[in-house]
Design a protein that fits this description.
This protein is an all-alpha fold and about 140 residues long. It is about 60% helix and about 5% strand. The chain contains five helices and two strands. Helix 1 runs parallel beside helix 3 and helix 3 runs antiparallel to helix 4.
Length: about 140
């Protein structure tokens, strides 16, 4: 999230930092709220485990929410950079290409992170499987 905040302070929209855009700022605030809630839930689950309680549906909920938060941060970072997130330079495919990258240095890898983290909703048990686990645990099945 700190990387996203730095980008939002540096990138501009209508001559002002993107962080000052009310819609963008609201999305970043939602992420911060979600992270805070997740941190609290994680502490509760950890304490319950320390007290000897078996894992409950909260662990699956944390996996799903963590995945969604990570993907939202990656998506918002990619959107903040616009075309700099993944510029296409056909000359870069040629041998000996050695020009400067397009856009700010911190834009390198943003698109790769975005696409790479799409898999987090699959590994560790797909989010759909986790939702089924939650449903069964909540219904006592």
């Amino acid at each position: 999230l700190e990387h996203l905040k730095m980008i939002a302070d540096d990138q501009e929209k209508d001559g002002k930092p993107l962080a000052d855009d009310p819609f963008f700022a609201a999305r970043m605030s939602e992420i911060e709220i979600d992270l805070s809630a997740m941190r609290t839930s994680n502490l509760r689950v950890t304490q319950a485990a320390n007290d000897g309680a078996p894992p409950g549906p909260e662990t699956s909920m944390l996996k799903i929410k963590g995945t969604e938060i990570r993907q939202t941060i990656n998506d918002l970072t990619r959107r903040a950079l616009g075309p700099y997130a993944m510029p296409f330079v056909s000359e870069a495919l040629e041998a000996g290409y050695n020009d400067e990258p397009i856009g700010p240095d911190y834009a390198n890898g943003v698109a790769a992170d975005y696409f790479n983290h799409r898999k987090t909703s699959i590994y560790g048990g797909s989010n759909e499987v986790q939702r089924n686990i939650i449903s069964k645990m909540m219904m006592g099945l």
